[in-house]
Amino acid sequence: MALSKDRAEIVGVKALGWLAGNDELLPVFLGSTGASTEDLRDNVQEPEFLGSVLDFVLMDDAWVVAFCDAEGIDYNEIAAARAMLPGGEQIHWT
Hints:
mainly alpha; 67% helix; 6 helices; single chain
């Protein structure tokens, strides 16, 4: 599933909003990334930051399911969105 860059950023913003509203996961994200609540607001339009949000959500299948179900997004769309944002390229070691 290929997405446009704009759609990938929309998915990233939705993930950020979902994460910001999750009282259990938000502190985990902030602690693991070193980001502050101000960083969430200040970087909402930065594709690199949105990629890091998607990286975090993609770490756990339960988080992916919860986010996608809450936002009505196909489960595969989150990975496709991550691939379209900076740093999401497939690395080929051969």
